[in-house]
Design a protein that fits this description.
Length: about 350
């Protein structure tokens, strides 16, 4: 059975704006009254200095748009971003679009039929027999089950698979003065847009995907929500999320590594989804990681914000492009459920 290897990663980012510019130019006017000081403090302590936006609120305020208009704009903006990311990933892997056997697309910020999977397969010239899978509404952890599905296909069929994660969170800014609470302020301070693609092939040089695993605590299902409303999608984010992660993350990681005869001390690369500074602090503490083990995750949060599903792939790309790439990487991502996903990768070649 062929070992699935991540042979190429490609990214596509909309124009970036500093956090200070977003605050001064838009959100300082978006929040008012008793929420203003709270919002100002949350933005300042978000761990984010720059973010990307396909629809920049400094140029275009979507907060009063109905959901239908947001969904139409999603197609306009997501298609070229996805095409750019996929093109770069295929080039990095030395493949053509026609070589792809399975095309997996993850996105929770926009919906339409035909979707990105069909439109990109058409525009990029994928073969008519290319299989497709769309992963929706899994949120920030979707890249890992997406990688798992692609990996299983590569192992079973011996053919390349392609994963694309594309999110446009900028389309879901909520109206000012309507149910404004701490959860909304946090989401407005953190989220960002990106598209990242990864190519998996049977064997060769890159990072071998050894296993993808997960745990879900359904007793906390209400702690993280993503509701479709008449004015876009609304995030619900409980402050108890870090506590739930602290109960599960050590066991998930230890069990994953033990199945491969490894321990935490033998991992030299960590790609941990930065849901926010507190999330990274909890993972750091529970795993008792060495100093700077999460430097790539913190730098990605600082430079790109929380891009939902593409974020952990952005961190992976940062690690693999380092002057001395890590030999062994654990990827971790978290989302609705509450769900924790983990993956183990080994450098090959």
């Amino acid at each position: 059975m062929a070992v699935p290897v991540i042979a190429g990663v490609g990214t596509a980012l909309p124009p970036a704006t500093t956090q200070d510019e977003l605050w001064d130019g838009f959100f300082a006017k978006h929040f008012s009254g008793t929420t203003y000081a709270l919002a100002e403090r949350i933005f300042a302590n978000s761990g984010v200095s720059r973010r990307q936006a396909a629809v920049n609120p400094l140029l275009e305020d979507v907060s009063e748009w109905p959901t239908e208009r947001r969904m139409r704009r999603y197609q306009v903006e997501a298609l070229p971003l996805g095409k750019e990311a996929v093109g770069r990933a295929l080039t990095a892997a030395g493949l053509d679009a026609g070589d792809v056997g399975l095309f997996v697309v993850c996105s929770c910020t926009g919906y339409a039929t035909p979707g990105l999977d069909i439109l990109l397969a058409r525009d990029l010239g994928m073969a008519p027999d290319t299989q497709r899978m769309f992963v929706g509404h899994m949120g920030c952890y979707a890249a890992l089950p997406g990688l798992g599905a692609a990996s299983d296909f590569v192992s079973a069929r011996g053919r390349p698979a392609l994963l694309l994660c594309a999110e446009l969170t900028s389309l879901h800014i909520q109206p000012a003065g309507v149910r404004v609470d701490t959860q909304q302020i946090v989401s407005h301070a953190l989220f960002s847009d990106a598209a990242v693609a990864a190519v998996l092939v049977p064997g060769g040089r890159g990072y071998a995907l050894r296993e993808v695993t997960s745990v879900t605590d359904t007793s906390t299902a209400d702690h993280m929500t993503w509701d479709v409303t008449d004015t876009g999608f609304r995030m619900g984010l409980s402050p108890k999320v870090p506590q739930v992660l602290s109960r599960h993350v050590r066991g998930l990681v230890d069990e994953l590594l033990a199945r491969h005869g490894r321990t935490v001390s033998e991992v030299d690369g960590w790609a941990v989804h930065p849901g926010g500074p507190r999330i990274l602090n909890v993972v750091d503490g529970e795993l008792a990681l060495p100093p700077d083990a999460l430097a790539a995750s913190r730098a990605t949060l600082d430079e790109h914000g929380n891009c939902s599903s593409p974020t952990v792939l952005l961190i992976l790309d940062r690690l693999r492009r380092a002057q001395t790439p890590p030999e062994r990487i654990v990827m971790l991502a978290f989302g609705p459920g509450l769900t924790l996903y983990a993956a183990l990768l080994d450098r090959t070649g």
